Amino acid sequence: MSATIRLAKYLSHAGVCSRRGASRLIDAGRVTVNGRAANHIDHVSDQDEIYLDGQRIDGLAPKLYYAYHKPVGIDCKLRAEDPSSLIHHLPPEQRTYPIGRLDKDSRGLLILTNDGELCNLLAHPDHSHEKEYWVEVDKPLDEAFFTRMSAGVPVDGILTKPCVCTALSPTRFKIILTQGLNRQIRKMARYCGYRVVDLLRVRIGQLHLDPTRLAENQFTELTLEEVKLLKK
């Protein structure tokens, strides 16, 4: 790479994290450029000496893409000191991170990658990529629930975007979101008077979870065609 690019973009392309994650690392003072603390206006190339937590970033990394079937009990925060952390279940010896976290009590499809551009594409609300969930609640559902959920309800001071919300059984529903607020579905259901007892993500964009191909707590490398589907 001869031309220089913004530091956050460089870190993203190097497979360290997403651009937003890179900005947080810079803010935290964990990145240095040529021996000094980095800042957001830095433009860098492979000729610069860039370090994260004292370890050199060696330029662009080959792009890696995996699907992971997350079980309940795995925490998506990458903390080596936490035995329940996802970091202990990532592909070995390859730096990847999850796109679109699931909370510890939820399960289903995660994308693991070092492609910061794909992370930005799938996670940024402006791109409106769909994520589909099947959700079990603690009591029978009624029509008022679906009307409220579909129209949008207040979550942490934000009115959720209109969404698709339909019944799967008397106590189970399907919901398709294009945003990813913290514990959004659980908080939406609670606002409507229900408690979520099981939450399963079955789809991200056009990529579906296939339990016959991918058992819980297993990961598999995505095909080129599957990566193309995610980028649509």
Automatic annotation (TrEMBL):
Keyword Lyase annotated: no
Alphabetical keyword list: Isomerase, RNA-binding
SUPFAM superfamilies to which the protein is assigned, alphabetical: Alpha-L RNA-binding motif, Pseudouridine synthase
Entry EC no(s): 5.4.99.-
Residue ranges constituting the RNA-binding S4 domain according to the UniProt record: 5-65
The keyword Isomerase belongs to this UniProt entry's keyword annotation: yes
Any one GO molecular-function label of the UniProt entry: isomerase activity
Root EC class: isomerase
Pfam families documented for this protein: PseudoU_synth_2, S4
Catalytic activity: uridine(2604) in 23S rRNA = pseudouridine(2604) in 23S rRNA; uridine(35) in tRNA(Tyr) = pseudouridine(35) in tRNA(Tyr)
NCBIfam families: pseudouridine synthase
Entry's family note: Belongs to the pseudouridine synthase RsuA family.
PANTHER family linked: PSEUDOURIDINE SYNTHASE FAMILY PROTEIN-RELATED (PTHR47683), RNA-BINDING S4 DOMAIN-CONTAINING PROTEIN (PTHR47683:SF2)
Name the record gives this protein: Pseudouridine synthase
Lineage: Bacteria, Pseudomonadati, Pseudomonadota, Gammaproteobacteria, Alteromonadales
